[in-house]
Amino acid sequence: MSCGDCKWFFPLEEDPSRGDCVQRESDGKSEYYTAKPHNASDADCEKYEAK
Question: Between 20 and 30 A from 18 (CA), which of 32, 34, 37, 39?
Answer without folding.
Answer: 32
